Amino acid sequence: MNNFTHKVYLLTEDDTYYLKLLESAQLDDLEVTQKRHEATILLASPPMAAKCLDEFPKLEWIQSIYAGIDALLPHLNGYTGPLTNVKGIFGQQISEYVLGYSIAYQRHFYHYHTEQQGSNWKPMPYQSLSGKKMVVLGTGSIGSHLAEVAKSLAIVPIGVNRSGIPTKHSPFAATYHIQELATALQDADIVVNTLPNTPETRHILNQESLSHCQGALLFNVGRGTAVEENGLLSALDNGHIRHAFLDVFAQEPLPESHLFWKHENITVTPHIAALSFPEQVVDIFVENYQSWRDGFSLNNLVDIDKGY
């Protein structure tokens, strides 16, 4: 693919900053274009690209700025080139989110914030996170990073994946097959979903599966479709789940009338557990572009049939 000028079109929430970063990278044979019909590469937010993909007739490669490409998949019927996403940059942020909320909940930080407003001195007993079992659904880069960080706090990480086989140099104390989810959840103190959106993972956390928990904290930082909402509400009512921290939802933004907003045992955050920082995305794009330009395979290829 040498001796050819590739034309990239930016379709992100911050095109100006992405343009600045690309210009600083000074990539050979790459030109940023403002004309959709001549773009051969699309660096884009999947929800934004989904609305206008048919306006890019010459696309040879789509680089998503997110890990999740769900919004784009239904619009790829006429596209035959590669689709890549970003991986390996979200583990730290997810770990901060999960452990930050876990610590705040376990140590009653919100209680003390409220009591301070009334000048109330009301200490509450608490338990350390040491020795607690964290069941992580998904043992990829995010789940593995979270497991490593959790171990530093003496939390015992348990993995659940499609094979039941530990990854090489696995940070998990044990790894269960997805069909053994009920067994994995029985002793869970913290449950974290990091799975992608696939037919197999849809509503994997439902009334039946969550009934095996015994008062666990639940985090959904994967995909909103993993949680069956009525099943979660039932699990909260029955005490199987003590508190749910939800960052992703089947419908986003979450409707104002949704029951989750007012539920005392649910914390709602607006899909912010892990953001795509442009600097990190461009680093990934630069490496991929250099491989693309030199005729080598791309990193982080998405299997469109599988959806991840």
Round the mean pLDDT to the nearest integer and report it. Answer: 95
Structural class: alpha/beta
The percent range for strand residues is 15-25%
Low-pLDDT stretches are none
Structure, described:
- With 308 residues, the chain is of the alpha/beta class.
- Helices cover 28% and strands 17% of the residues.
- It has nine helices and twelve strands.
- The protein has helices at residues 15-25, 46-50, 91-106, 109-117, 141-152, 181-185, 207-210, 229-237, 278-293; strands spanning 6-11, 30-32, 41-44, 61-64, 83-84, 133-137, 156-161, 174-177, 190-193, 216-220, 241-246, 266-268.
- A seven-stranded parallel beta sheet has the order 8-7-6-9-10-11-12.
- Strand 3, helix 2 (46-50) and strand 4 form a beta-alpha-beta unit.
- Helix 1 packs across helix 9.
- It is elongated, with a radius of gyration of 22 Å.
- The two termini are 27 Å apart.
Summarize the structure.
By secondary structure, the protein is α/β, with parallel strands linked by helices. It is built from nine helices and twelve strands. The chain has helices spanning 15-25, 46-50, 91-106, 109-117, 141-152, 181-185, 207-210, 229-237, 278-293, and strands at residues 6-11, 30-32, 41-44, 61-64, 83-84, 133-137, 156-161, 174-177, 190-193, 216-220, 241-246, 266-268.
